[in-house]
Amino acid sequence: RYQYYLQVKKDVLDGRLLSSLEQGIRLAGLAVQADFGDYNQFESHDFLREYVLFPMEWTQDEAVLEDLTQKVAQEHRTHSGITAAEAELMYINEVERLDGFGQEIFPVKDNHGNDIHLGIFFMGIFIKNRIGRTTVIYRWNDIGNIAHNKSSIVLELINKEENVLFHT
């Protein structure tokens, strides 16, 4: 479970899983509890400034980073008494509720040349437009075959007797 915790934490910090500001603060507080223990063990939370708490795109402004770090310290205080293993499990459970968890998304072009995203998840394959809104879901039961060559992906659908083409 510890390795899984490290992987999902890396996915959050690398920006592969997106979270709201509130979710990010909650996750960072749990990560600090899991990695460092109780709040009252430290005279100062200055060490948090050196610890990577958020995705890199969040931490461009120093004043914003300082404010977020203070909020993480407050969040960390609320988790006092929770063991590292419990904090890791709480972190994992929180991450599993994030939008996009369990999905892999790839940039492709549709047959009209428009930039879209092709995603894979437990129910099948989905298409998201440029603004991130899911437009179509092809369920695994409806897909007869998936073919790939150097520059294209073809979904062969069972019931509609049609193929859907994407360019990589």
UniProtKB/TrEMBL annotation:
Residues 1-168 form the FERM domain. It comes from the Eukaryota. PROSITE patterns: FERM_2, FERM_3. GO terms for cellular component: cytoplasm. GO terms for molecular function: protein tyrosine phosphatase activity. GO terms for biological process: lymphangiogenesis. Pfam families: FERM_C, FERM_M. InterPro entries: Band_41_domain, FERM/acyl-CoA-bd_prot_sf, FERM_2, FERM_central, FERM_CS, FERM_domain, FERM_PH-like_C, PH-like_dom_sf. Its EC number is 3.1.3.48. Keywords: Hydrolase, Protein phosphatase. PANTHER family: TYROSINE-PROTEIN PHOSPHATASE, TYROSINE-PROTEIN PHOSPHATASE NON-RECEPTOR TYPE 14. This is protein-tyrosine-phosphatase.
